[in-house]
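Homework help board

Subject: predicted structure for assignment chain

Our instructor gave us this sequence and asked us to write out the predicted structure in token form, then describe one feature. I got the tokens but I'm not sure how to describe them. Can anyone check?
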Amino acid sequence: MIMSGPLTPSKCSRYVKVFFRAFEQTRKHRCLSNSGRSDAFIRSFIAENTETTGEQSLTPEVRLRLFTPNCRFWRERPELWPFDDPYWAIYWPGGQALSRYVLDNPGVCLGKTVLDLGSGCGASAIAAKLCGAAHVVANDIDTVAAVATHMNCELNGLEPPVCVTDNMIGSEPEHFDLILLGDMFYDEALATSLHSWLDRCIKTHGTEVLIGDPGRAQFEGHGIRRLLHQLAQFELPESVREENYGLTCSSVWRYHPEL
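My token output:
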């Protein structure tokens, strides 16, 4: 994707959806296998193609390596991107709300075993560690996201969580006290799989489940929505609103399947 002219914050905001659509359209032309690429190579690539930021998010105390208008791949042809689509490089509004809620309510994680499912940049895992979680696992099927999570933990002076790149959805539930999901209800089929698996986790281990979502249609229209209890709502910073097509708020919900 090639964009002409300088990218101001308001101008770049209009490109987030176009940005990922371009990556999706060029996926078949890219080499998507991360195997054979060393962590050192991936670390170097992330360092060269992201910017340390976070000040304009809901969690300004958390520093993250993310895509910004200053980064090469805002302008570069997406077929030159050598990995899977970089969802880890955006701090999505559901994840922002979830991380903010955890930081504001440290008792939610204190002394607990926590799974950050679909962890992306690792922000919710970082929030859990900052709040004294006993054990944190970050799960994302993109191995580059795992490296980014390690780097983001280092930025915040933390030991990295255990990073798991197998798809845990549908697997035999492990014993976690708490599962965190930020912006995971973007696809109806995925939402349905999540719904079933989360039920198993709750029934098997009594796991608490917290969900962050800005009110996307796939979330609001899914059957799981009637089983949620809202815990908090956060007004998104102006820059985040612009990046997400005018979404104004993002909420955190507790999943109560017995409702």
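Reply (TA_rk): Your tokens look well-formed. For the description, you could write something like this. Residues 1-15 have pLDDT under 50 and may be disordered. That's the kind of observation they're looking for.
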